[in-house]
Amino acid sequence: MAEVDGEQIRFRQSLIATGGAPVTTGIPGLDPDFVVTTDTVWELEALPIRLAILGGGPVACELGQAFARLGSQVTMVVRSRILPKEDPAAAQLVRKALERDGVRLLEHTAIEKVAGTDAGSRIRLGNGTTVEADTVLLAIGRSPRTACLGLERVGVDLDGGGHIVTDARMMTTNPLIWAAGDVTANPQFTHLAGVHASVAAANAVLGLKRRISATVPRVTYTSPEVAAVGLTTAEAGLAHRARTVQHTHVDRAVTEDNTDGFTRLIVDRRGKILGGTIVGPRAGESLTELTLAVQNGMTTSDIAGTTHPYPTYSDGVWNAAVADVRERLASPLVRRAMTGLVWFRRRWLDRPGSHRMDR
Fold it and tell me: Which residues neighbour 85 within 8 Å (Cβ) at sequence distance 6 or greater?
């Protein structure tokens, strides 16, 4: 039983999945008549001639490339760099692709103010330059839809960003209420929201204690695609290493003359796969094997010892794993051990009577 706006509401279990909404505040002077968000851009009835995109995350890059290929003059204004959560080498390949398609990229650029004009908006940047646009696309993030839900009245805590606080079972601070999707503080991906909702519903209805996985794959659907999971760069001070295969050495990429990409695995000293990045065609599909490896604590030896179909783009994962295994086998310690085993095997085979065949 809970009281919301003076009404008594009786429930046994509840699941909150109100999602998130595009962030539209924080930029003074925006005229809503010339602004679209990642939710409303699909309602445009005509192609913008001059499109300014504020933001540089995955959706901003995807839409920027799409509108440029459709014929819009696209300018992206990015506070830091594009794809800030991805491997810098991956972001660089996407940057080059966007520029080839005609996108004007203004990275590490702050917005000072926006003023309306008869034809749209004039965006004044921190460096004193201006960008003219007849349509402005806001792609600067999403905020959780938790306002006016009265969650504080039913004992559901929120974090500093307004997200519902949940544990690994998707239970909130009220044991009768569960939450999933963008309304929580988890990464905002459609595929993740569905998995978390399934976990929350099963736990709430069946009384199970299923826990969500910390292994979350993600894909940016630009051309080339960028797919990543787990660690994407070797962390300083730790015994991690990056094993990279350029797609100039992946036969499927060579065959299709599309070699602008790479596969990079992040592994620890024992060859355990901690994560990685794939850039290129079908990167999202190739990432599936890498995601399974991270989820199950597999090593590069596990991947290298598995027969793969050939030729495929996923050869990049296999080739990177093989290269890592070969390097570990070439280490002085392993070489000494192998030399000892070979010596022992030869002595065993050379012993008197070792080749006799009993009939």
Answer: none
Using the CB atoms, write b or e for 175-214: b if 16+ within 10 Å.
ebbbbbbbbbbbebbeebbebbbebbbebbeeeeeeebee
Domain at 11-21+143-206, CATH from 3.30.70.330, 3.40.50.1360, 3.50.50.60, 3.20.20.140: 3.50.50.60
Please, what CATH class does the domain formed by 221-332 belong to?
alpha beta
Position 42 scores a pLDDT of 96
The whole-number average pLDDT for the span 152-165 is 95
d(CA 30, CA 120): 10
User: Mean pLDDT of all residues in the chain?
Assistant: 90
3-class DSSP string for 254-281: HHCCCCCCEEEEEECCCCEEEEEEEECC
Mean pLDDT of 170-195: 95
3-class DSSP assignment, residue 176: coil
Residue ranges covered by each domain of the chain: 11-21+143-206, 28-139, 221-332
Report the predicted TM-score, pTM, of the whole model to 2 decimal places. 0.88
